[in-house]
Amino acid sequence: MKGRANDKTSASTDTASLSRLLEFARPEARPIALAFATVAVTSGIQLLFPLAFGHILDLALQPVPAMPAEYVAFGLLGMFAVNGVLISLRSALLMLSGERIAASIRSRLFAAMLSQEVAYFDRRATGDLMNVMASDTVFVQKGLTNNAVTMMRSGVSAVGGAGLLVYLSPTLAAVSLCLIPPLGFMAMKFGRYLRDQQKEVQEALSRILETSESVVSNIRTVRQFDQEHREMSTFDDRVQHSYHESRKVGVPQAVFDGMAYLAGNMALVAVLGYGGSMVTSGAITAGELTSFLMYSMSVGLSVMSMFSAYTDAMRAAGAGVRIVEVMDRESLMPSNAGGRTLPSFRGDVSFHDVHFTYPSRPNVSVLTGLSLHVPPGRVLALVGASGCGKSTVGALLTALYAVDRGSIRFDGVDLQDLDPRWVRRAIGVVAQEPVLFSGNILDNLRYGMPYATRAEVEAVAMKANAHDFISQFPDGYETLVGERGLQLSGGQKQRLAIARALLKDPAVLVLDEATSALDAESERAVQSALEAAMKGRTVVTIAHRLSTMRSADTVALLQDGRIAELGTYTELAATEGDSFDRVYILSAALVYVLDCALNIQEAGRSTQA
């Protein structure tokens, strides 16, 4: 009973996914219908060939033929010419329709992915999503076009051929067709198995893509730690797993194909033996037996083609389930959810008893009752141990995640009541590890403001101390940065990220130690530019350096998911005892001293050179 219930569930899932995917074929209904019409005509013409061939043979064997055999042959050539034109038309229609369907599915898939909350991508592997976009889409594309037409063509040929077999000789037809029902039953069982197994095959392939993508993206780290053999071993393990999953499909497929081939030839031998005795007895002519044998082979090939198309359709059904799972998933934090905007946003930011855990780590509480207020135009420095939630505060401010409890308010308005797109436009973010996209420098700087003028871009580049090094490149602002900005140094990428954030002219700036990747000279230049840019803006900066703490209006120490200490740098530094905050002040001082020592050492080397 449990197996039957599972079959019903799978069938209902397939039906639901099929009905959803058929929506993408609706715009192509006319070309696909025309392709089906050509299939009906070409299949009908093809069915006439064995009958005509048998007629030619009988004419050739007659002492005085009723009509020249050449007439029939020329008629066949004409039909084949018509078939050739129609087959070319059908192929073109299916190719173009299939590509348009695939493009539509991929566009909807990509839109669905972009609409998901960030937590969704924390849980789902990138390689898996890319496999859905690439491989699964191809399966569905073929299922809605080529496989559908193949099943129709094979169905017309099989049914028409079977009818002509009965017309030529009902007795021989019974011998020839007796094996089709059991083969059909086996094909349906195998198709259901294949449908369920296809999901496992695709998931195994996704893990291969995930591994290869991770290694290629981080090839420098792999090389620096001499881990090529380890990564190769991991990749081989996943390839072997994929092979074993695919073998679960391939071996039964091979057995089924062999059995079908044997059964078909057994039927053919039986027809040949029994039909020969009928020719000898005069029950049928030699031409009729020849036509019958040709129809038998045609029906057999058509049935096998139908079985093959059916198994491909089951693969498409499995792929379709994965596509629909992504496409129909409703985001827990829709980007286009609407909500209020604050046209005269002053930059007042406050946290009220905020509790938060990452959805991918539900058992680890990151923030447990965080309360904090940053008045407009003030600078707050967050300090604390690694993993205490400093970067999480920045992620919550930009509405990447929703709080579990409590509220975040902008000018007294709950963040959940505001338009997420407006929130992200109102806040500028500079991460500790800046992200650049493939393309040129100008495109990266305009990423948040695509319609910014060249003058506006150059102005913020100057503020971020980036204009000079950009101008030194032969192509200037059109210089390609490479994948993830690999053609640029860490300091150059950081300054571009700062300029990109300033271009939005945000009311609130979130800085994750934005100057940490710069040398001493560049840091001073960028720090002074940031100080000028921060005037009139609310700033939340994650601090590791003593200079950052000292320049902030307020320093907040995060401990155990809440604020442990709050005050100015001077107030916290003067705190007596071994309070936890002093440890971070001393750590920042140590970082500062080490930076100074390294800069002095580099200056000494430059002098010696």
From TrEMBL:
GO terms for cellular component: mitochondrial inner membrane. GO terms for biological process: oligopeptide export from mitochondrion. SMART domains: AAA (SM00382). It is found in: Mitochondrion inner membrane. The keyword Nucleotide-binding applies. It comes from Cymbomonas tetramitiformis. It is a multi-pass membrane protein. The keyword Transport applies. Keywords: ATP-binding, Membrane, Nucleotide-binding, Transmembrane, Transmembrane helix, Transport. This is Uncharacterized protein. It holds the Pfam family ABC_tran. GO terms for molecular function: ABC-type oligopeptide transporter activity; ATP binding; ATP hydrolysis activity. The chain crosses the membrane at residues 32-53, 73-96, 161-185, 259-280, 292-310. PROSITE patterns: ABC_TM1F (PS50929), ABC_TRANSPORTER_1 (PS00211), ABC_TRANSPORTER_2 (PS50893). SUPFAM superfamilies: ABC transporter transmembrane region (SSF90123), P-loop containing nucleoside triphosphate hydrolases (SSF52540). Residues 349-585 form the ABC transporter domain. Residues 33-315 form the ABC transmembrane type-1 domain.
